[in-house]
Amino acid sequence: MLKLSKTKTIVTSGKRKTAVARATLKVGSGKIKINSVPLNLYEPKIYRLRIEEPLILSEDAREKVDIAVTVRGGGSMGQADASRTAIAKALVQHLPKLKSVFTEYDRHLLVADVRLKESAKPNKHGSARSKKQKSYR
User: Fold this and answer.
1) How far apart are the C-alpha atoms of 56 and 94, rounded to whole Å?
2) What are the angstrom distances between the C-alpha of 103 and each of 36, 64, 91, 99, 133?
3) pLDDT digits (tens, 9 = 90+) for 29-56
4) Which residue segments constitute the domains of the chain, with CATH numbers given?
5) E strands present in 73-120
């Protein structure tokens, strides 16, 4: 088991669409902040619950570490998914035994989801695939 000293920090990143999150994990008392906002005040609730998933799965480590996440870009859900990936990666570096737990629960906790929106094509009215409508009259 990897022991984290009082001065050592773990920095990881997570991505989803165009959102990028950086998580910093330190030994502490269980404070978790997303963009300087405590996790229990993060709104909407569905995004907070999504971010809490890796913390719930690793309840023994939750009270022993402080995690600060900085997330930029993308939308609310993309930021939530990027944050949960960054937090999960940091927890796995702190406690390697969590890797199998996270992988069994949801692989996207540790592996970034690389799908992006399909780019729009010319003469398609801003859509990726739909064509101009023709009226033969």
Assistant:
1) 15
2) 28, 22, 13, 6, 46
3) 889 999 999 999 998 899 999 999 999 9
4) 10-109 (3.30.230.10)
5) none
